[in-house]
Structures are given as structure tokens and as C-alpha cells.
């Protein structure tokens, strides 16, 4: 098969463990962000970057993803790679070797990250340096919250991924990998036919052999939505962008009763706030309801959750259980 154009892989085959019980029924890439599935924003960016076809790998509640996205996104074909046993961030490319190898440039993007991806700039950096791979890194994220981050030279070359390595230990610059990368097609030959990790099984061996891995730093807001606190922070930043500090985003069918006070919050479809209630810095998912005089602050209310009149919810995620009850999860502070 001859190479042509640009193709992408969206890594969407996680287990959903860290966001449970919210992800018991809904895979993380389908969680709503500003009224759309999280992964739809990434697919938009890939289309705008000129991808001619996009693969999405699947595992936990995987069939919900093609059911929601269909066979095309803005006329670009979507190809689904089903993993009965999860293959890891590198092994995911093995069943897609022919699909991805048909392109001149390969983009690999994490399906649980949220960013206004500068993908064209990332691709240009990759072409200009001739590196084997080029990583997007976030300037504003704290490396200490993400395992120490990526060690970089002054010119953006990647020196190491683990602080125990000598190169990484002496590096003066550390940045957090922001979930998007470009590969040369030749790297597909190094992908094993079993579970494999991109850092341990591809990037570290490449560095040991003297290959160049480059980076592009971005100051754009980036969110890893792997925990409830990070999901809340990302959904609010994205949903309230362009609004005043106390602004509110209401999806179609969401309602705020007269006499209620809602600030810096996002209400998804069918969510409602009754008279006298107070909601601040919170995300109300589809059909969630806040009763009269209740107070909800810095919280996530899962689909269909009802907060009783006069109740108080703060720094919690509430989700419905299969038995009809409500599960409560403490929201730890999101890392900046």
C-alpha cells in the first residue's frame, strides 16, 4: 500500500478506572464537555490538521464510541480498532500497522486529554527537525504532578523520561507531555504484537540508540481528564471560555428557576436548578437536579442525580448506582 497524506490514532481504549463510577456506563472519551463528547473536540482538531482518516482504538464500553460517533467525522472516515485485551499506548498501533503505514505522517493523540491542539505547528516542528518523533508538551502544567515530566534540552530535544536517568537528572527544563505526538511511519516497524508502552518500549530505546526525539511547547490550556477533579477543571475551563468570571453555560433543555443563583458553572442538557438553590463552580450532567434551597459548590452531579431540597454538596462527585442509590466521591484538588 503506497503512502499518502496524514493519518491519526486516537487512544481511547482505557479502563476508565480513575473516573469510576462515572465511567461505569460511559467510556471516558464520551464524557460531555461543553455539550459534546470529549473526543469530538479532538477529532475536530485532527480534521482541521488535514488528516485523511482517523483510527480510534476501543476497549472499556468500546461499542458505545462508534455508536455515538458513527463512521465519519466531518466527512473524514473513522476506523475502529477493537482490543478484547488492552494493548497499551504503543501496542495499540500493531493492529493498525497497514492503516497508519499508508500515511507520510502519523499523529497519535490521547483520547482523555482536552486541548485546543496546535497540531499544524506540531507537524511543522516535526518536519523541520527531521526527528523520529515529536511530542507536544505543556508549559503551564506542573511536572511534579505527572511523574516528573519530560526532560528537555534548550533546543527542545528530549533527553529522558525518568528522573533516574543521568540525562534527565541534569536537565534544567522539564515539561509535561500533553497527549499529542507525531511519528515517522518507520517507527511502526518497532511496534510489537503485544501489550507495549510508548515510553518504555519505543522512546527510551530510541534515545539509547542516539535517535532524536523533539518537542513543541504550548502555553494553551491542557487538561488530562483522568480524575474527577481534573474532569471538573477541564469541563469548566472549556465550557466557560469567553464568558465572564461568573458566567454560566446552559445546554438546550437546562433550566435555572427564578430566585436561584448559579455562578461559574456548566449545566448539560436537561439539568435543572430549583428556586432558592445555589450552584457555584460545578458541572451538572444530563438530567441532574438541584432542589429548592440546596447548595452545590465545586462539584460534579452525574446524569440524573438529584440533590434534595436544603442539602449541601461541596467538593464531591455524586453518581447514580445501578441499585438506584447515589455514590459519593471526594474531589481532590486538581493539579495545575
How would you portray this structure in words?
With 336 residues, this protein is an alpha/beta fold. The protein has two domains: 6-222, Alpha-Beta Complex (Spore Coat Polysaccharide Biosynthesis Protein SpsA, Chain A); 228-330, 3 Solenoid (UDP N-Acetylglucosamine Acyltransferase, domain 1). Helix content is 19%, strand content 32%. It contains eight helices and 28 strands. It has helices spanning 38-48, 64-69, 88-91, 97-101, 119-129, 166-170, 198-208, 228-239, and strands at residues 6-11, 32-33, 36-37, 53-58, 72-73, 76-82, 105-110, 113-115, 133-138, 150-152, 158-160, 173-183, 213-218, 222-224, 248-250, 255-256, 261-263, 265-267, 272-273, 278-280, 283-284, 289-290, 295-297, 300-301, 306-307, 312-314, 316-320, 326-330. A hairpin with a 5-residue loop joins strand 10 and strand 11.
Task: Describe the protein's topology.
Blueprint: E1 6-11, E2 32-33, E3 36-37, H1 38-48, E4 53-58, H2 64-69, E5 72-73, E6 76-82, H3 88-91, H4 97-101, E7 105-110, E8 113-115, H5 119-129, E9 133-138, E10 150-152, E11 158-160, H6 166-170, E12 173-183, H7 198-208, E13 213-218, E14 222-224, H8 228-239, E15 248-250, E16 255-256, E17 261-263, E18 265-267, E19 272-273, E20 278-280, E21 283-284, E22 289-290, E23 295-297, E24 300-301, E25 306-307, E26 312-314, E27 316-320, E28 326-330
Parallel strand pairs: 1-4, 1-7, 4-6, 9-13, 15-18, 16-19, 17-20, 18-21, 19-22, 20-23, 21-24, 22-25, 23-26, 24-27
Antiparallel strand pairs: 2-3, 5-6, 7-12, 8-14, 9-12, 10-11, 10-12, 27-28
